[in-house]
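Researcher: Structure for this, please.
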Amino acid sequence: MKLIKTLSIVFCVLVACAFLAPTATADEWNKRTTVTFNGPVEVPGVGAQVLPAGTYLFKLMDSPSDRNIVQIFNQDGTHLYTTILAIANYRLRVTDKTVMTFRERAEGQPEAIRAWFYPGENWGQEFVYPKLRAIELAKITQQPVLATPIDLTTAPVEALKTAPVEAVAPTGETIELAKVVETPPVQTAKIIEPAKVVEPPPADIKTLPQTASSLPSLGLIGLLSLGTGFALWMFFKRGANQRATVSNRAS
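Model: Predicted structure, token format:
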């Protein structure tokens, strides 16, 4: 009975994990986020419009290759309002809350949504507007705006995948994207050079100067040889005299 009870508990835990794990993974994958607007907000993209104040659902389009296409739904996700083309934007300061940025507008005018940052991430989504509308916003805000020459308000969603993106200045001129989208700082890796092995300088072998001739050494050797020979001669001579004395006494 204990074994059956234990197996039942394990089975229930596995089933619970099977239901809970996909939900958490899905939210992390598509950045599903619920956002509440206190006032009307202008949104671009396919189905561009001004959303009234309310609660909406933001998430990335469910496709591995389309990580910069954002969809906005109603709160329960049953109605799609717009699908927006975006470019990855970088922020230095990461927060644990959702951050939405807007373009300043005249009083009484709806704010135009600019970017969306998911909690805990450096990368966010900078939204792209149709070029004519982007130029108007740039003149109003006196800031460059991301734009595309394609009219996405009526284009099919598939057009977002290949739509070119540029940036327009308040003058209407096209400028570099880097002036609108902040790229991550380049981290220069420090190249650590291997330690150089310093070999000690070769020792100077100094030859002492020859201060004397070799003749005194030869002379000394000669004197030693003569002394040795004289000592041997005296030894043998003394031995011969002793033998002669002994011989005379015997006779």
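Researcher: Any notable elements?
Model: DSSP finds three helices and 13 strands in the chain. The CA atoms of residues 15 and 102 lie 43 Å apart.
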